[in-house]
Amino acid sequence: MEMQYVDNILQNLELSNEDLKRVSDTLLTELKRGLSVSTHKTSNIKMFPTYVRDIPDGTEEGTYLALDLGGSKFRVLNIHLKGRHCNMNSEKYDIPQSIMEGPGEDLFGHIAECLEEHIKKMENKQPHLHLGFTFSFPCEQRSLTQAILTRWTKGFTCSGVVGKDVTLMLREAIERRKSSEIDIHVIAIINDTTGTLMSCAHRDRDCRIGLIVGTGCNACYIERLEEVETWTGDREPPDQVIINTEWGAFGDNGCLEFLRTSFDRKLDENSNNPEKQLFEKMISGMYLGEIVRIIASKLSCNNIIFKGILSQQFETPFTFKTKYISKIESDSPGSILKTKAVLEKMGVLNPAIEDCQTMQKVCKIVSTRSAHLVAAAVSTLLNKMQRKDRTVVGVDGSVYRYHPHFKSMMEEKISEMTEHPFELMLSEDGSGRGAALVAAVAARVEAAQSK
């Protein structure tokens, strides 16, 4: 009887191929709205042109800096390129909560300070350094070096940044701390999806899609200019541009209400951005653990698990981390060792075998729904692009990287939803390496144009 109740609770999280086909069809409509001049402004999926027109051709050389900002930590990297070879050194820096929620000037000042610290440690410093900036938040790109923040996500609420050019704010912060020894030229700004695409394209030129399934979820892909009505740049070859979909906002206009459950709605109500990023909230690492916690709380309140008693940890929003899902799903069939360890960490003393098995079931259905939704979205891009050749999808992000079954679940479902050949490629340091590669390609083009 109890397992029947659990199944009834979870059944709305189980998506049929018919459900996923409806998601794909709806997404395609929204993608086209974002590319259209007449509907772009009212579209939830913004389909921003990145102004990145080309991928690495293997001739890029030199030392480049990269900044990678997309969460509560950011990285500073120095990358040496020589053809297809890449040597890289990087360092991570924390962003305190007070800075994430404080004035924007403080955020960029902190970044500039860490950048200066990193440069001081560099060996063989050059007097002039090109820098690529990965800024993984929704932006309207107006050129390769100009990006206007449209809204904060991932827990950031810094004032005085929305509606501003983040490249300019970084340049001004660097200028305030400028060393007379080194001149830093911010030559490109991208988001993490573009960085992932560029990093994988450096390894395989068939890479045409960049995907992030981590703290957030987003994708970019290479689109023909004739499909991009919003394009205002030149029409010189190559006749293409990388489009940053910002598909995390898919569903913000109500088109995914058929999919959302009471658990999704409760999570949304308690989030710091209600009614925003609704697709992302069903998929990404910032939210999956919380969905599991909300389900577990409901089951406990109905005396199905934990003898009806919730620990303080389970009562506190966002304490059940998404990494716990990956750990629970790493248990071998029939084992509960890792599941038991997670529950004990969450304050459940001596959890019953049945409790562990129920939590395994909850985690599996939540992560499976996530993987299948991403698969439906990727298949939409593959079907839209209509490439006959194999398309490499560069993927990065903690959910994809650390969940033991996420990749295989995605591969299986994409194969069911498209006939176009594809390969999922894990990106190695995609966000940072990609920013340096965009800077290198831009420097190559700039040098060719100046001859």
UniProtKB/TrEMBL annotation:
Principal EC category: transferase
UniProt domain Hexokinase C-terminal: residue ranges: 208-441
Nucleotide-binding recorded as keyword: yes
Nucleotide-binding keyword on record: yes
InterPro entries attached to this UniProt entry: ATPase_NBD, Hexokinase, Hexokinase_BS, Hexokinase_C, Hexokinase_N
The protein's role, per its UniProt record: Catalyzes the phosphorylation of various hexoses to hexose 6-phosphate.
Family: Belongs to the hexokinase family.
Protein name: Phosphotransferase
